[in-house]
Fold this sequence. Notes:
The complex is a heterodimer. By secondary structure, chain A is mainly alpha-helical.
Amino acid sequence: xxxxxxxxxxxxxxxxxxxxxxxxxxxxxxxxxxxxxxxxxxxxxxxxxxxxxxxxxxxxxxxxxxxxxxxxxxxxxxxxxxxxxxxxxxxxxxxxxxxxxxxxxxxxxxxxxxxxxxxxxxxxxxxxxxxxxxxxxxxxxxxxxxxxxxxxxxxxxxxxxxx
Amino acid sequence: xxxxxxxxxxxxxxxxxxxxxxxxxxxxxxxxxxxxxxxxxxxxxxxxxxxxxxxxxxxxxxxxxxxxxxxxxxxxxxxxxxxxxxxxxxxxxxxxxxxxxxxxxxxxxxxxxxxxxxxxxxxxxxxxxxxxxxxxxxxxxxxxxxxxxxxxxxxxxxxxxxxxxxxxxxxxxxxxxxxxxxxxxxxxxxxxxxxxxxxxxxxxxxxxxxxxxxxxxxxxxxxxxxxxxxxxxxxxxxxxxxxxxxxxxxxxxxxxxxxxxxxxxxxxxxxxxxxxxxxxxxxxxxxxxxxxxxxxxxxxxxxxxxxxxxxxxxxxxxxxxxxxxxxxxxxxxxxxxxxxxxxxxxxxxxxxxxxxxxxxxxxxxxxxxxxxxxxxxxxxxxxxxxxxxxxxxxxxxxxxxxxxxxxxxxxxxxxxxxxxxxxxxxxxxxxxxxxxxxxxxxxxxxxxxxxxxxxxxxxxxxxxxxxxxxxxxxxxxxxxxxxxxxxxxxxxxxxxxxxxxxxxxxxxxxxxxxxxxxxxxxxxxxxxxxxxxxxxxxxxxxx
Lengths: 163, 543
């Protein structure tokens, strides 16, 4: 029997294949969402680490699995003013020796701080939440959302104990 | 200026194609065989282009490709209005076939005599010139025509209807909120929505995809285009001019309106059409602006004043029994399936404020939008991820709506405002709420807190007393109000101008008060009634 982690990897691979097929069929105007448009590779690497700390992989994919760092890159690309600020925020994170330090401890301290560290933490957290729960991985695989679809009969609450 | 060389004098000109204009044109054409020219400020919205069945991640993919959903709301860069902080009034307008009915909230509540008799009883501003019995037959007819689901259960503040289609099942969270409110002695009923749950009214039934706010691809909820104007057009008796941005109603020497001046939205060319009778249904603020710029019908001086809608806030929480359960498909009709009608007139206790409030419950259950509440939970990491998942199916929401009294100083004006791109003065909106609303908000918050605490819900942090930006309810009323006395009102009980007998104003501006209710069903009923009256006046040669 597959372990849960293997199942996730299978699911992720399937998603990736589906995405490739999708892009192959109508790729005239479609940039691959795997190509960063605003941030440099080192920034993307740092961003991936940050989003994955905020929403890590469990028995379902994490934020980096769901390419949330690319979602943030897209926002930065389309709203350059925001992008410039994010770039500064990432530089600040790097300056705190985040890459080589105790990353969880640093994030914990920023999450409980006030002022600039808290603002930067909350910005990253807000973007990660918005990004992750708008993906198939976050909304469907993690939360079990299966809606916005054709239903012949709306059943509503099906729990006898709630009637 | 270009005037048609051999101008046709139209029997009836209808301005606007939303609930008010659409109903007027449809009734006059389909039921009375009249010929109508309709002027609409936009073009048709194509249902097949709505992004109705686009999941959130697909939406992102499309946006990244440079695509965008059809733009339905009017861009204020194209057509600005003035509203200053801190009392900013958010004015949502849709210029195009069907107007706001393309994306409306579909809540279809009947007014009751508690609403119609309110001003006469408490003395705040002028009385309504009609009562429930005057409009009830029209509610019946509208509900049969457009299809409204709900219940036949009456309360003193919200009449039921034997014409309602079956209501949808309740979501888990709605069951809990209903039970909690009822434990407080407050009745909760099936929400009345202009969504077809059967085919009995001849429309496609809802398929419960929950995306009504993006426009319905099968027109399962009422929109003026599919339900009214398309049918009227098929008779050959309704002609619609698209992109006709009306600027003025023109007055003849005899004191009656003789036509309409409009500008082509694309070419900006000025046009004049002549007509014997004019029906104005361009939505509250735009109709008011047209009347003020036309300088007609305002011997009372009330046009533009008494703008009123509702104060509203939101409260979110999580029901303990639902935490950690499996998420269900909670889309349903899109919006709530229950409604809490006004109850404050029931217990005999005198309030320190006038009028009342009701509550809606949209966003309850496992919905696509997670961010707003999830960001407010503390922490990060696996524990944080688990905390979100646990709460996800347990979300409940309340959105109480309270009546804002008609105040003279809440107004739409055009004096000294800049011109729009056609050289026509834009609207200025001045709006604030008073002591009455603040006192009412106290009880509205008491209600929401009571319902949530009754369920032992974990409440998402909120600031007591805070309200949505003005205008958020999108229920503007009162700036061309009806009344019995021409000195204090602009319209009579049939939406006919006291001063200019061949002009009828049929949108929300004609309401004497706002009540706590969503107005569209009442707009439809009033427009049907007004145009029945007009048709009768035409038959007897009075108009």
